Amino acid sequence: xxxxxxxxxxxxxxxxxxxxxxxxxxxxxxxxxxxxxxxxxxxxxxxxxxxxxxxxx
Length: 57
Hints:
The structure is a single chain. By secondary structure, this protein is an all-alpha fold. It has helices at about 1-25, 30-55. It is elongated and about 45 Å long.
């Protein structure tokens, strides 16, 4: 149960942090690429338990 709490907390912290950074980024050609990278980071955090489970098998 503790692992689930930590995983959800990590997801929320990453989403809030990246949302804050996204607000600070000026609208430029780089903004599109940074949003893509931010999405990949969020996806990696969400998939982390699945990857750990597969490595344990």
